[in-house]
Design a protein that fits this description.
By secondary structure, this protein is α/β, with parallel strands linked by helices. The protein is 43% helix and 14% strand. The chain has 16 helices and ten strands. Helix 5 runs parallel beside helix 6. It binds ligand F0G.
């Protein structure tokens, strides 16, 4: 069957799909891995948890080329870097940005340097950065230290910083909001997502606003961001010197997008809230087992957050009296396979049995 023009546009990545909303020109060299166009999955079990005829959708960003939402911003940041004659890319990362930057640098044919907090990066992400050929520097410090160093090192010699402090990253990440509106026909009522360095919440809000100002949508969502309780500077309104959480992707104590995140929350009449590591792990397991979507712990913060809105008296925003038939989108930001260590430990040792039908029947209790 022949594909339609719009299908072709989508399969060529977010710049081709949304060129008119992005800072590119016909002469920008496009560096793409056909990112974006990720599934917006209706989740019946989550919808039932909320009740009142509400519909919950999960925007599954884990199916991007390097397994996280970072690819949307990276295609724009790296394309623009190439247009400006970049000699190398550099970034600080809790893991996903480094994987994405390394992949797009490989695609563009330039070196990539990643500065990471030593011992704090999930296995899958470190494997990715290495496989794509990045130069990896581990520091005895936090992500916040790494970003401070990168800001200085990247300030010249043709090194382009591809963290979300680079506005081209934010521009690219807006496309996730465009896709949601394109599928739903309008903006959702609520948008829930994890918050780390606070680039993504900034980007979604900008995307929703762009679409409304172009009259493609008629409403704006209420933005609700979730930080891990041990790494919640925005929630507590103070820098966290030693952030701690199992959700290593959002283990950040001084987010670069702090101000912008607060603006998105204030303008959308939204909220910032916290979820505990226990709640994060429970939500991760719940989403995999009940809806078939396996995400990394940081992503599960959005789902843990949804549960908190439904169940807890302490929620910054309660869904107990949520308007009937509200539409709620939760962004899950990264794939579960990136961070397998804790789950591997749960599997333990699998003792093999004899290769007979009888033995297998016995084990499964038939
Ligand atoms: N979820 C995942 C899986 C992430 O990797 C990140 C950020 C976030 C959520 C938070 O997004 O920073 O825009 O608020 N990861 C960055 C990195 C910091 O280096 O990969 P944010």
């Amino acid at each position: 069957m022949e594909s339609t023009t719009s299908e072709l546009r989508q399969s060529r990545g977010v710049i081709e799909a949304y060129r008119e909303f992005l800072p590119v020109s016909p002469s920008t060299p496009i560096v793409s891995l056909a990112e974006g166009n990720t599934p917006l999955v209706y989740c019946p079990q989550l919808s039932e948890r909320v009740g009142r005829g509400c519909q919950v959708f999960v925007k599954n960003e884990g199916v991007n080329p390097t397994g996280s939402f970072k690819d949307r911003g990276m295609t724009v940041a790296v394309s623009k870097a190439m247009e400006r004659g970049a000699k190398a890319l550099i970034c600080a990362s809790t893991g996903n940005t480094s994987a994405s930057a390394a992949a797009y640098a490989a695609r563009a044919g330039i070196p990539c340097i990643v500065v990471l907090p030593a011992g704090k990066i999930a296995t899958g992400k470190l494997v990715q950065a290495f496989a794509y050929g990045a130069r990896i520097v581990a520091i005895d410090g936090s992500f916040d230290d790494a970003l401070r160093i990168v800001r200085e090192v990247g300030d010249g010699r043709g090194f382009v910083v591809v963290n979300s402090i680079n506005p081209d990253r934010i521009a690219g990440q807006k496309t996730a909001a465009f896709e949601i509106v394109d599928v739903l026909g309008d903006a959702p009522d609520f948008h829930l997502l994890p918050v780390g360095n606070a680039g993504n919440i900034t980007a979604y809000w900008a995307g929703y606003r762009d679409y409304r100002s172009h009259q493609i949508s008629t409403t704006l969502p209420t933005m609700i961001g979730f930080q891990a309780a041990g790494a919640a500077p925005i929630f507590y309104n103070r820098i966290v010197e030693k952030p701690e959480t199992i959700a290593s992707a959002i283990r950040i104590g001084n987010p670069a997008g702090w101000k912008q995140a607060c603006a998105a929350i204030a303008e959308s009449h939204g909220a910032i809230d916290i979820v505990s590591d226990e709640e994060i792990l429970e939500a991760q397991s719940w989403l995999a087992k009940r809806e078939g979507i396996f995400v990394e712990p940081a992503s599960a913060a959005a789902i843990a957050g949804l549960f908190k809105c439904c169940d807890s008296n302490e929620a910054a925003r309660s869904f107990r009296r949520i308007p009937e038939a509200s539409r709620i989108v939760c962004t899950v930001t990264g794939h579960g396979l990136k961070d397998p260590d804790r789950i591997i430990r749960q599997i333990g040792e699998l003792k093999p049995v004899a290769p007979t039908v009888d033995d297998v029947r016995r084990v499964i209790g038939l």
